[in-house]
Specification:
Elements: H1 2-21, H2 25-28, H3 31-36, H4 44-56, E1 85-88, E2 92-93, E3 96-97, E4 101-103, E5 109-112, E6 117-118, E7 123-124, E8 127-132, E9 138-142, E10 147-153
Antiparallel strand pairs: 1-8, 2-7, 3-6, 4-5, 5-10, 8-9, 9-10
Length: 155
């Protein structure tokens, strides 16, 4: 029973802290967003009432980070059905040189996972395909040059 009471008191304290630290709408939004939402038309009393309501209904966001035993992040592409990813490299591609990081238009980053280097011209935003290979590995294929390198996802 003491544990339940202690847990209840802890939860009340946490909710009080969250209510105290919940930023107001003016702090959360830019002036443009605040105006576009029509919130600048509220009276100070109405705005205070809305901010008080929001602080009592704070949304808690939980982020779960899954890592391998070596500390590397686990991505959805590492598990389950693995499919070909088709996108473009962001910016200029000039090849790879050991531990090259490939930043893609879809927001992902992949890092060269094998030794070696390759330079076969310069390409702006080239199309790429990342294909699943055996034993959980991935192969990045750069279409314009017809070259490929083994990669691992890092973001």
């Amino acid at each position: 029973m003491r544990r339940i009471v202690g847990l209840a008191l802890s939860l009340l304290a946490l909710s009080a802290i969250a209510a105290e630290t919940t930023p107001t709408l003016e702090e959360r939004m830019s002036k443009g967003e605040f105006h576009a939402a029509g919130l600048d038309k509220l009276s100070p009393a109405e705005l205070k009432s809305l901010n008080d309501w929001l602080s009592g209904h704070a949304i808690v966001k939980t982020i779960t980070k899954i890592e391998t035993p070596t500390g590397k992040p686990v991505f959805e592409t590492d598990q389950g059905q693995r499919q070909v990813i088709e996108t473009r490299i962001t910016g200029r591609f000039t090849g790879w040189y050991g531990k090259t990081i490939f930043r893609l238009d879809n927001g992902q980053e992949w890092t060269q996972a094998e030794s070696g280097q390759m330079s076969n011209g310069k390409y702006d935003n080239p199309k790429v395909k990342i294909k699943p290979m055996l034993l959980g590995s991935w192969l990045l294929y750069v279409e314009p040059c017809g070259c490929s390198v083994r990669v691992e996802r890092t973001k």
